[in-house]
């Protein structure tokens, strides 16, 4: 850590706050365990849309419908757990990356919901609207993931470190 950060009283105060997970099973944070599902399903929705664009087989529209629904509903679950962590743990709340991650993730859930809702009600066409929403959801997934990674790798949020380490 640079010398200027070590002597910064604001950073020192933030680093004093606990970052232990409040929503965990046997010490393992549930948010970190649940985010994989919406991430994979957002990417699967984009892949199915691209495949439909490429070959026009209606199988891909059904696959994207199911994947987008799964992304939305699993995203709600991961988002609820993440929101609980944000609100319950002061050391998480004190970090800017937490808020950036949360805003990007909530935006992602909204876009995933619009993507699924438009498909299930047949109010949007896969091309171009569904594909556009899938691209936007993928970009938001990358943005939320970037800030989530900063929380883990730069701030140690959600890491269990053994006393032996």
Keywords:
165 residues; mainly alpha
- Care to count the β-strands? 2
Helix/sheet category: mainly alpha
What's the story with the biggest beta sheet? 2 strands, antiparallel
- How far the N terminus sits from the C terminus, by CA atoms, comes to 20 Å
State the helix count: 8
Radius of gyration: 19 Å
Helix content percent band: over 70%
Strand order of the largest sheet: 1-2
Please characterize this protein's 3D structure.
The protein is an all-alpha fold and 165 residues long. The chain has one domain. It contains 8 helices and 2 strands. Strands 1-2 form a two-stranded antiparallel sheet. A hairpin with a 2-residue loop joins strand 1 and strand 2. The longest helix has 30 residues. It is elongated, with a radius of gyration of 19 Å. The mean pLDDT is 90. InterPro entries: DUF2231_TM. This is DUF2231 domain-containing protein.
Write the layout of secondary structure elements.
Blueprint: H1 3-6, H2 9-16, E1 24-25, E2 28-29, H3 30-34, H4 36-55, H5 59-88, H6 90-93, H7 96-120, H8 126-154
Antiparallel strand pairs: 1-2
